[in-house]
Design goal:
By secondary structure, this protein is of the alpha+beta class. It is built from four helices and twelve strands.
């Protein structure tokens, strides 16, 4: 019975340190010594992980770097020229469509007057040929990392037989050109280790009371009695109160092993499918900034999807042809070093841009209608405030 009182009063630290004594009524409360010696390392030490053949560079949490794919056992299929396309013209929009697009745009702006929309006279509409080339390279990357979880009796298979190589583990490939990540536990790498955080104890000292299980009473400040001389009823004269974070135990369940004292450590394989996308937009002389085109779509004039695509041929704009050739070459050289190329896709969109010139109150103004969505850019709109000062 006496020992149980010691644990109750001394807590996690005091029960294992005979030099500590709790405060008694009328005496100043004693401060708890630091409990840092009881805290294990926050990160698992390198010695915790075994050397696994084929996975020697794997580390905890950060992976071992992207693993280059093996050389294909059979030659890769050669790219073939894509389908030809001869009609590269952009249909023009009507005057009513241009006016409706401006009206919709102006109505979305606070305090913009609709006067130029109603009374403005369109004097000229000029259509521009603008093309966007897009190259997509769908790749698969693989990276390994040591992982851990509380040991609850899971199967342990390390050293039963050699684990399969990182690129020999089957993974279900998602739909092409869609980003996805899959995590797979590598077979024959699981083993059991003592928890590095709590050193196999299952519990860690409470940080609030530094492992003591109680703290100085906030009412009597550790004196055990009040200023009137009466015994402090909050701590019953002890000068200390139980820590409400650990409920007086002085320790809390280890969050790493969840109190199980041991960890199952194993290697995880992370398979990362990425759609690497790059655009090239042909420069045009309409005066519309290129950044406006990033949020609109165009009419798809050309599409080609292969294991590896062949650069675009027969396109009337030489700048786009050169850009396509450069991007295809760069993608195939760049991504084949660190990943496996599964598929490539290239397309050319024809983005309509109409420059609309109009007059309002004797002055000339310009706005642009662009994209399949008939988006509008009207930076020089002449009536951006309809408010009247009385």
């Amino acid at each position: 019975m006496e020992n149980s009182n010691i644990v109750r009063d001394y807590g996690y630290y005091g029960a294992t340190n005979p030099g500590y004594a709790p405060a008694v009524q009328g005496s100043p409360a004693m401060f708890a010594p630091p409990a840092s010696d009881f805290q294990g390392p926050s990160a698992p030490p390198a010695s915790m992980f075994d050397s696994v053949p084929g996975y020697e560079g794997t580390v905890a949490g950060g992976g071992g770097g992207f693993l280059p794919p093996p050389i294909p056992s059979v030659p890769a299929p050669q790219p073939q020229p894509g389908p030809g396309q001869s009609n590269w013209d952009i249909p023009s929009i009507s005057e009513s469509t241009a006016r409706e697009a401006l009206a919709k745009y102006v109505s979305s702006k606070c305090c913009w007057s609709s006067g130029p929309v109603k009374d403005g006279v369109i004097t000229n509409m000029e259509t521009f040929n603008t093309y966007r080339y897009r190259l997509e390279t769908f790749t698969e990357q693989r990276v390994t990392e040591w992982s851990q979880q509380p040991y609850l009796g899971q199967p342990v298979d390390a050293y039963t037989q050699p684990p399969p190589g990182p690129w020999n583990i089957p993974a279900k490939t998602p739909t092409f050109f869609q980003n996805e990540t899959q995590i797979i536990k590598v077979p024959n790498t699981s083993s059991v280790k003592n928890c590095h955080t709590c050193l196999g104890m299952g519990r860690n000292p409470c940080k609030e009371c530094v492992g003591v299980g109680n703290k100085i009473c906030w009412v009597c400040k550790g004196a055990g009695d009040r200023a009137s001389g009466d015994r402090c009823h909050h701590c019953q004269g002890r000068g200390r109160e139980n820590c409400n974070h650990c409920h007086g135990q002085g320790s809390k369940e280890c969050q790493t092993c969840k109190g199980k004292q041991q960890l199952l450590v194993f290697i995880n394989l992370k398979v990362i499918w990425t759609n690497n996308l790059e655009d090239y937009v042909v420069e045009q002389s309409s005066g519309l900034h290129m950044a406006n085109l990033s949020n609109v779509s165009g009419k798809e004039m050309f599409r080609d999807s292969q294991y590896m695509v062949y650069p675009v041929m027969g396109f009337p704009n030489p700048d786009l042809v050169h850009a396509a050739e450069r991007l295809v070459r760069e993608h195939q050289a760049k991504f084949s070093q660190t990943s496996r190329i599964l598929q490539q896709r290239q397309s050319i969109e024809l983005i309509p841009i109409t420059k609309v010139s109009y007059k309002w109150k004797g002055a000339s103004h310009v706005y642009f209608v662009f994209g399949n969505e008939y988006m509008v850019n009207a930076d020089s709109y002449p009536a951006t405030c309809c408010c009247t000062v009385m």
